[in-house]
Structures are given as C-alpha cells and as structure tokens.
Specification:
Layout: H1 3-12, E1 24-27, E2 30-38, E3 43-48, E4 51-56, H2 62-92, E5 98-102, E6 109-111, E7 116-120
Parallel strand pairs: 2-4, 5-7
Antiparallel strand pairs: 1-2, 3-4, 6-7
Helix pairs in contact: 1-2
Length: about 130
C-alpha cells in the first residue's frame, strides 16, 4: 500500500491523514479513542475499554501508524462480516464459499453465482445489527 493510499484510507475510516493520539474513531457504530504508545517493538492493536491502543516503535511515523490502523480495521471488518454472514446465510438458504473485502467507491457489496461475497470494509463503521 502506497503512502497516498494509506492516508486516503485512513481518512475514509474516520481518521484524518495525520492520526494523532486521542483522536476519535468510528467502529461498529461506536466511537473509540485512538491511543498511540511508543514501544520497543510493534505489537498488534488492541480494542479495550473504548480505546484502540496502537503500539509503534516510532510515534512520529504517520505512514506506519496509518498502515497498522488500517490493517487492524480491515481484519476486524472481515471478522464482523464473517459473523454476520454465518448468521444470515442459513436464513436465506445460501452458503457463501468466500468473503472478500473491497474498497469500491460506488458499491457496498456484491455476490457471485460461485459463492463469493465482496463487502466494502467501510461498512464496519455502521452499528451491528440487533
């Protein structure tokens, strides 16, 4: 992922191109606070008690912070989509074979006759279904 793309995707995810400690982020209809901490090594982000905690070696490296945040965001989106599809697919009498993320600008999702479901990862901003 290029530097420009990382900044654009961070903006789409509710974070400005310059992601800063204390910035609010939207995930599953809830607002969380981004917390950026320096560390001796880079660890996976953790969502705890209303905060997304990101450990990075260089807190001044915006590109690294954006990439780490977006990787986490997309992984979580995929996890959430799997949960939703596991719930709704049997109700619809279908069994998707594969779930993929997309960054399409004009389409939220699609499915194929081969059982491939593509969903825009930005849907994970929305609140979870009841």
């Amino acid at each position: 992922m290029g530097d420009k793309q990382a900044g654009e995707l961070a903006e789409q995810a509710g974070a400005g191109a310059e992601m800063a400690d204390g910035e609010p982020l939207l995930f599953r209809g809830e607002t969380f606070t981004l917390r950026i901490f320096p560390g001796l090594f880079s660890a996976a982000p953790q969502l705890t008690f209303g905060e997304l905690i990101v450990h990075v070696v260089d807190t001044g490296n915006q590109i690294s912070i954006n990439k780490k945040f977006l990787k986490w965001y997309k992984q979580e989106a995929l996890r959430v989509f799997h949960e939703c599809i596991e719930h709704f697919a049997p109700l619809m009498g279908v069994s998707p074979k594969e779930i993929k993320l997309t960054s399409a600008r004009t389409q939220w999702g699609s499915c194929t006759a081969q059982g491939v479901v593509r969903l825009n990862w930005q849907w994970s901003h929305a609140a979870a279904p009841d």
